[in-house]
Specification:
The protein is an alpha+beta fold. It contains five helices and three strands. Strands 1-2-3 form a three-stranded mixed beta sheet, covered by helices on one side.
Amino acid sequence: MQKLKLGLLAIAMVTTFGVTQHLRATPPPQNPDNTKTNERDRNKNEPTADQQKENDSDRELARKIRRSVVSDKSLSTDAHNIKIIAQDGNVTLKGPVKSEEEKQALESKAAEVAGGADHVKSEIEVMASGRNNSQ
């Protein structure tokens, strides 16, 4: 019986040691600092998703742009999840993307649907290399 207790104690110690070593080797996750973005979006003059108009033309405009963006499989998940806010025929694009090329592709798609670049306000941010926001 005592051998069984010692054996179980040894297993518990090895398991605890292994878990402890794993926890030490795993760096703590870093939380992105969105303070500046959050402050910008609290500004009453900044369009946010909750300000999306409910009239048929603006809803249809946002839907067409979203469909164009999502159908482009060359874009990243971040680009597919860009915020599209339509207000009175004008569109605001917000959110992070992986590259300048993705940013330009999104702006181009929105301008094509909205009737020109003068109807599109881009607040798209290109993420710094090494940063990963994809889920």
